[in-house]
Amino acid sequence: AGGGRAALRACGVHNVCRLLSRRAHGFYARDAGVAHRKNLGLLRRIMCQESTKFKNVWTTHSASPIAYERGRIYMDNYQCCITSIAQQPRLIYQKSKCAKSEKIEDALLLECPLGEMLPSPSDYKASLIVLTVQNWLLRLSADSGEVLEKVYLAGSCCKFFRYLSWDTPQEVMIVKSAQNKLPAAARQAGIQQTVLFYLAVFQVLPLSFIGMLEINKKIFGNSVTDVAVSNGILIVMYSMGLVRLYNFKAILEQFMEQPFDLGQEFNWNGQVGVVGKYPFGLPCNIKITDTPPLLFEASSLENAFQIGGYPWHYIITPNKKKHKGVFHICSLKDNALAKNGIQDMKCCSLEPDWIYFHPDMSGRIIHVGPNLIKVLKLKEVKNHADQMEIAEDFTIAANRENCVNNSVTVTASGRVVKKRFTLLDDDPEQETFKIVDYEDELDLLSTVAVTQIGADGRAHLDFHCNEHGILLKSIPLKESWDVTYSHEVYFDKDLVLHIEQKPNRRFSCYVYQMVCDTARDDD
Predict the structure, then answer these.
(1) Pairing between strand 305-308 and 495-502?
(2) Helix, strand and coil in the chain, % to nearest 5
(3) How far is CA 67 from CA 58, 79, 85, 111, 500, in A?
(4) Residue 306 burial by Cβ neighbours in a 10 Å radius (0-12, 13-18, 19+)
(5) In this structure, are residues 301 and 321 in contact, taking their beta carbons and an 8 Å threshold?
(6) Contact 196/176 with Cβ under 8 angstroms?
(7) Where does residue 77 rank: exposed (0-12), middle (13-18), buried (19+ CB within 10 A)?
(8) Strands ordered across the beta sheet of 127-132
(9) What residues pair up with 306 in beta bridges, in sequence order?
(10) Rounded to whole angstroms, what are the CA distances from 263 to 117, 249, 277?
(11) Could you give the angle at the alpha carbon of 383 between the alpha carbons of 377 and 389, nearest 5°?
């Protein structure tokens, strides 16, 4: 408090709000993070200069999936790691080919939290949490691939853990099983399967076991199709489009039978073993015996449901196929539809438009169609402070200036010819948006737009001002882009990385690095 008052006196600022605003803009050199913010601001300005180019510095092809995490490219089922931070990508480590029984099913990057005292020096470096097909949870060094910790997950209860996700990013991790299904012979014999999923919950750094629970038909109903955990909320999805939310933290506290630590010897339900060691694995120590209190439920087409904005709102699609592509934005408080809360681009396209809350935590909403991106905002209705409306913040349109789609043409002889069909909004011969992303460190909105003429598709990555949508930079991608393939594009500060999946499990990776050289336009 004394330092804050001194700063106020030193700069002649007597308003707290103004002080905080000046601090956010980096006016005080002794504030933590000021140098980093200045450097990122410089990088953004350099990157958006006309003379700055992005050069394709590396290309590789693989018969196995390629993954990217924070400057590292993983290949050969995470056995090979390549850094993309160097001027040209180079090998960090290459492990011997693993057996099928050691195949990695899923992975998460784990980074050291700031300001925390950790038990091991290795905890201060980035690591990779991986889940193997044989139900081992491994923590690997991101620099060498060395196994730092290993936990055996599956005891007698479950044999098929397959998915990793964050409940709270970099703090609480969820390991989810595949859906339990009885063999056909067992079903014919009349055997009932009541447990649908298992969830194992871990605190990370240091890695510690919180508990394991089952999602049971007897508690949650027969029509459960999937479950997820995010930000302390248990999300249960049903076949009829229903989505139900429960307080996950309250479930852990209410139904925990006995806490266990990794490496602890236990005698549990007649089993004697060590927690996290083979062959016992983890005990199912959270038994939900009654339906937990329901926080919220909504019905939405294909279980599509999102929460965000301020005050809290949610987005759904009415649960009928004829409403596909229509989005309702409603208040979480009272389910009231916001003014202008029905968003419908009325697209006539093969691929549907999509909508989501902006990841920059501004509370805005991004709605992406084939040729138009709308950034929307929530604001109070004038003279009605308790009602919110959806307003347009800015739009980004595809470049279709040269597109001619007349339904009626006149020949040289004067004969009128009417077309019997019209082009789709996402026709490959028209520029169409395929990817929209947000680079949080540079505060840029990135878009990938594609035009395909014949067999040759051309794509460009554009950077837009996140505040106003102004186009700041356009980068042509040199490789051909086939709209029928699966594509991922990562924009990470001065790096652009394009991963492409072709038929027959053929994968390609193209890496672009920022270069500043006005003398060589071909770069």
Answers:
(1) unpaired
(2) 10, 45, 40
(3) 15, 11, 15, 17, 11
(4) middle
(5) yes
(6) no
(7) buried
(8) 104-110, 127-132, 136-141, 147-152
(9) 315
(10) 21, 24, 7
(11) 25
Distance CA 313, CA 83 (A): 40
- Check: CB of residue 125 under 8 Å from CB of residue 185: no
Instruction: Give dist(CA 229, CA 400) in Å, integer.
Output: 42
Residue whose pair of structure tokens reads 């248990």 in the numeric block? 234
Contact 306, 315 (CB under 8 A): yes
For 320-358, what is each residue's pLDDT tens digit? Answer: 999 999 999 999 999 999 999 999 988 887 788 999 999
Amino acid at 367: H
pLDDT surpasses 50 at 440: yes
| One-character DSSP codes across 294-346 | EEEEEE-GGG-EEEETTTTEEEE--SSGGGTTEEEEEETTT-PEEEEEEEE--
Residue given tokens 């089952």 in the structure block: 214
The structural domains of the chain, with segments of one domain joined by +, span 99-299
Reference 400, options 432, 376, 375; nearest CA is 432
pLDDT in tens, 135-164: 999 999 998 999 999 999 986 556 689 999
The model's pTM is: 0.85
Residue 243: name the closest of 311, 306, 174 by CA.
306
Please give the C-alpha separations between residue 9 and each of 26, 29, 33, 84, 286, in angstroms, as whole numbers.
17, 16, 22, 46, 55
Tokens of residue 502, six digits: 């072709």
* CA 522 to the chain's CA centroid: 34
Place of tokens 């194992």: 200
pLDDT digits (tens, 9 = 90+) for 241-293: 999 999 999 999 999 999 999 999 988 777 788 999 998 899 999 999 999 99
Classify 113 as helix, strand or coil: coil
| Number of residues that make up the chain | 523
Q: Return the structure tokens found at 447.
A: 């878009």
Q: What is the DSSP letter of 281?
A: B
> What are the CA-CA distances from residue 59 to residues 30, 452, 469 (Å)?
43, 22, 31
Q: How far apart are the C-alpha atoms of 414 and 275, rounded to whole Å?
A: 85
Task: Classify the phi-psi angles of 494: left when phi > 0, otherwise alpha if psi is within -120 to 50, otherwise beta.
Answer: alpha
The residue whose two tokens read 């006995």 is 258
Secondary structure of residue 253 in the 3-state scheme: helix
Question: Cα separation of 520 and 517, whole Å?
Answer: 6
Contact 152, 278 (CB under 8 A): yes
